[in-house]
What we know:
With about 200 residues, this protein is α/β, with parallel strands linked by helices. The chain has helices at about 20-30, 65-75, 90-95, 115-120, 125-130, 130-140, 150-160, 190; strands at about 5-10, 35-40, 55, 80-85, 105-110, 145-150, 170. It has a seven-stranded parallel β-sheet. The radius of gyration is 19 Å and the shape is globular.
Amino acid sequence: MAKKILLISQEFPPCVGGAGVVAYQNAIGLSRLCHKVTVLTRDWKIESTQEFQLIKIKGIKKLWPFFMALKINSLDLDSYDSIILNDIGANFVWATFFKDSKYNHKISTYLHGDEVKTILQNQSGYLKLFNYKPKYIDLLKQCKTIVSVSNYMKDYFLNHLDENIDESKIKIVYAGVDNNIFKPVKQNIQEQYKLSKENYIITSA
Length: 205
């Protein structure tokens, strides 16, 4: 059954960052599964697309969390079946301005890798100013699902978390591959490029 999904992310291509890439992959992937996706992000000069609805946050750059909160507050959140908080920025805005929201049961939030250092160990900027860590932990306790990008990230996060949360709500979801772009390689790469078997092939994604 098709669902209406709100995906909130501070990062989004062309802004460089792994979390932004995950947000884009999720927006495209969920749309292709016939879900109605709305992406709410900062104004990164993103080109419009027919695959999902795009809402760009404009205003003074340093005050983007406040403008994002205002935009979220203007949306009909009752109409969404699921709300995805894709990165630290999105989580900060939600946990700070929508604390104990009646919509927290719709929330799926992501663990990308920077949460331990940026939130649990060394808060700075807005995160320090608003004493974000306890708000973030409360959100983890109230949300529907916590998505971790790897088993390592899940264990790393839990090992540094000084409070108990329901571990059963943590789901491991690895980044996917767009089969329209990437295909299995049939030929032997070493033979094709005349590489010795003593050579190593290093790939990056």
